[in-house]
Design a protein that fits this description.
Elements: H1 5-44
Length: 45
């Protein structure tokens, strides 16, 4: 049984990078929503 560790490392790295990307994307969307809400609140005053 020959396990290719380089392939496993590459796949793990890819999965980690994708999860980081998804997390950053969620943070970006939330910050954009907060900014829009603050603009609306500022315009109301």
């Amino acid at each position: 049984m020959n396990i290719n560790f380089t392939l496993i490392v590459i796949v793990m790295l890819f999965v980690i990078l994708m999860s980081i990307q998804l997390t950053l994307n969620k943070i970006y969307v939330i910050l954009r929503e907060i900014r829009e809400l603050m603009k609306l609140k500022k315009n109301k005053e």
